[in-house]
Write a structure and sequence with these properties.
With 283 residues, this protein is mainly β. The chain is 4% helix and 48% strand. It has a single domain (4-281), classed as Beta-galactosidase, Chain A, domain 5.
Length: 283
Amino acid sequence: MKSNISTITQNDQPVIQVRTADGAEATISLFGAQVLHWQPAGGRPWLYLSEAAAFDGKTAIRGGVPVCFPQFAAHGPLPRHGLVRTRPWRLVDQREVDKQVMLTLAIDSDDGTLAVWPYLFALELTINIGATRLDMELEVTNTGADALEFTAALHTYLRVGEVELAELHGLKGLTYTDQCDGGARKTDPLPMLRVDDPMDRIYHDVRRPLTLDDNGRTLQIAQENFSDVVVWNPWETGAAALADLPDRDFRRMLCVEAAAVQTPIRLAADAQWWGRQSLIVGE
C-alpha cells in the first residue's frame, strides 16, 4: 500500500493532506506552511487546532505549528511572530521513503517583507511524517549581500486531555525567562512541570529531549540547533482575551516550542542555518 498525498481546499484554504502507508495522518496548510493536524498510526491527534481559528488568508491560524521568523513574539519591532506565518508558501518537493512522507515547502523575501524588514532570505520547511513521529526542519538562507540576524520558533500547540494533569519532564535545573513575571530569570527546581496558572517561559540552553505525559500517553520532544524551549499556556484570563481561542480550550492545549530567542542567529551573506524539532510517540 502506498501513501496518499493530495492538495485540497479546506476552510477555503489550500491544504496538503497526507495518509502514510502505515496509517499516520497529517494536514499542512500552504498558508504559513503550517502543520494543522498530525495523528500517528493507530493513535490520537497530538496537535491542537482551535475551532475558532480564522481561515481568511490574512490572519494567523491559531493552533498546529506556526513558523515564527524573523522575529519571535514581540521581541523586536516587527509584527508579532514575524512575517511568514501569514503568507502563502509553495510546495517544492514531495517524496516517500520507507513508508514515510517528506514534504518541503518554501518561501522567499518579497516586496512586502522588504518593506518592513530590509533583508533578502529564502526559507524551506521540510516536514517528515512517519508512523510514530513528526519531524519539522526549518532552513534559513541569507540570499542578500548583507549579514542579517533573526529569532525563530516552531510554535507547536500540543493537544492534551487536561492541561492540569499533563506532566512535562526534562526541564529540571534549566534557567528560564519568566515572561509572566516581568522577564525575571529563574531556575526550574522541579522534576516535572505542571500548568495551573498562566505560563510563558523561555527555557535556555536546552540540550536534552523532553517528555510530555498526557494521562498515560507519552510524547518525546527533541530539537537540534534550536537553543531554547518556550512553554506557553494563556490560562483562563488569557484565553478569554483571544477571540480565536474558545474560553475553555486553554485546558486542551500546551505549547512546547523549539525556539532561538535568547541569542539571535547571525547569518553572513550566502550562509545557511537550520533547526529541527521532532515529536516521537512513546511506546
